[in-house]
Design goal:
471 residues; seven-stranded mixed beta sheet; disordered N terminus; binds guanosine-5'-triphosphate; binds magnesium ion
Length: 471
């Protein structure tokens, strides 16, 4: 354990030295970390950000663009030869095609490098030629992010905590019953390990369809080529007494450790250790629509993930990030086009309250933070309708289910985020006043003018915060 963590930090510091030298001498690289649970909007965000950086007509808030200093933008071969390329063209074509579609859920990691040629500012700006700045972004399945919370736990700790949240869920009771019936101190038998792991994995699939956010380990949902391997054949078991070598308990513990060190650590080490800027995407509206339990489940999942970044802590991530502070963190509520703009401040307020701890900690350690509401791809237009003598601020779009156009009022979000977050924390089953609706809109049919990227809300503001100072 000590040796592996030492090795982690040694590799990290060698890497950061060589990064710094090459970046100072040659071309700066901004590594943007896109953090978000499953379906939070990562793939759509990356696709639209890249499209809007290539065609910058809708990016007036990006100051380098407003100042006419971005000379060119182009996609480059990515730096990592072993990671598939982010399929930008296919995702964009699906969003902009004659029958616009959202991208499928991401099943594997991929990467993209966008390079910008920028005219420098300042006294020497006019004398020097344009500089090149690279932006590296990776996309990955949101499910895998939850594994971050597992890294700093022992098997017994993980079992304990997992049993707590499983206990609160109706649909987990079958798995829990099966796990209770197994004697975990008895000698390990592969058949019973496999049976438990299978039941646990199928429960996680159910949990996902029920809208729970805490559904880890992530590879149980998306195993890829690891399906059936021992590193994925474990489950949370009731642990009361210490058990002997060769017992089911010990074998599961060994596999859990293998999962951590062979599957989870390499993923975070390869893709998260060199991040300078981070955007945390949260589908707060989706959770609010699902109810107080979903909001609390999401809040606790996010807080576990974000606490792994805590500077100065001894978490795996903090160790590999050591010496390289994340300079800026943007907390963004996604899919804001589900709301009329008059409600965006309330959504941002909820986002701020949800990520308050993480944001305070980041600021304390010197990072710049911001919260905002954005839509990576705007699928609606705004409309004010009269209803029962009242004016309602609605949004209009094409419903995903029926393909029909509809105007829709999602309900009024409270000014004070605690009106939602407090009952969620206290375990309320439904919202007391009011119901919050979310419609699923299909991407709008678009015809873009030359030089224009897809329509969005505040994507330019997000880009300015994340990379504006480097352009
Ligand atoms: N209206 C609207 N819907 C959005 C927007 N961004 C994402 N969505 C919706 O959210 C869904 C999920 O978005 P993705 O970008 O695939 O989410 P993800 O974080 O990549 O999800 P995983 O790959 O499963 O981790 C999409 O299929 C859309 O239905 C947006 O800007 N506006
Ligand atoms: Mg995705």
């Amino acid at each position: 354990m000590v040796i592996s963590s030492l090795a982690d930090s040694v590799t990290r510091s060698v890497e950061s030295v060589s990064d710094t030298i090459s970046e100072a001498l040659f071309e700066p690289v901004i590594r943007l970390g896109v953090t978000g649970l499953a379906r939070s909007g990562k793939t759509v965000f990356i696709t639209s950000l890249v499209a809007n950086l290539l065609d910058r007509g809708r990016m007036p808030q990006l100051s380098a663009q407003a100042g006419g200093r971005i000379v060119a933008a182009y996609l480059q071969p990515q730096p990592d030869d072993t990671v598939p390329r982010f399929d930008y063209e296919t995702h964009l074509a699906a969003l902009l095609g004659p029958d616009p579609q959202w991208p499928d859920s991401t099943r594997a990691v991929s990467e993209l490098r966008l390079s910008l040629k920028v005219q420098p500012t300042g006294l020497l700006g006019g004398l020097q030629g344009p500089r090149t700045v690279h932006l590296d972004i990776i996309d990955y399945p949101g499910e895998w992010l939850l594994d971050l919370g597992l890294l700093d736990k022992s098997f017994d700790q993980w079992c304990d905590e997992t049993w707590k949240w499983l206990g609160e869920r109706e649909s987990a009771q079958d798995f829990l019953k099966a796990a209770r019936e197994v004697d975990v101190t008895a000698p390990h038998e592969e058949a019973s390990a496999q049976d438990l792991a299978k039941r646990f994995a199928s429960y996680l699939q159910v949990a996902r369809t029920e809208g729970y956010y805490r559904c880890s380990p992530g590879r149980f949902l998306l195993p890829g080529d690891l399906a059936g391997s021992p590193a994925l054949t474990f489950a949370p078991i009731p642990v009361e007494t210490a058990s002997k070598r060769g017992s089911l308990h010990r074998e599961m513990e060994r596999r859990f450790e293998a999962y951590k060190s062979k599957v989870v650590k390499p993923f975070f080490r390869d893709h998260f250790s060199r991040i300078d800027r981070q955007i945390v995407l949260v589908d707060a509206l989706g959770a609010i629509h699902s109810g107080p339990e979903a909001v609390e489940d999401m809040r606790s999942a996010m807080s576990e993930i974000l606490s792994a970044y805590r500077p100065g802590s001894n978490s795996f991530l903090a160790r590999i990030l050591r010496g390289k502070r994340i300079e800026k963190i943007l907390f963004a509520a996604t899919k804001a086009d589900h709301l009329h703009h008059t409600q965006h401040p309330q959504l941002t307020g909820i986002m701020q309250a949800l990520t308050r701890d993480a944001s305070d900690r980041a600021r304390f350690s010197g990072a710049d933070t911001l919260a905002l509401s954005l839509a990576s791809l705007r699928a609606t237009t705004e409309e004010t309708l009269k209803h029962d003598g009242r004016e309602l601020d609605c949004v209009r779009g094409t419903l995903l289910e029926t393909g029909k156009q509809a105007a829709f009022y999602p309900g009024a979000l409270p000014e004070d985020p605690n009106v939602l977050l407090a009952p969620a924390r206290e375990g309320a089953k439904t919202w007391l006043d009011g119901d919050y609706q979310v419609m699923n809109f299909a991407p709008a049919q678009l015809s873009l003018k030359p030089g224009e990227g897809p329509p969005h809300i505040r994507l330019d503001r997000a880009a300015e915060f994340l990379i504006g100072d480097k352009l």
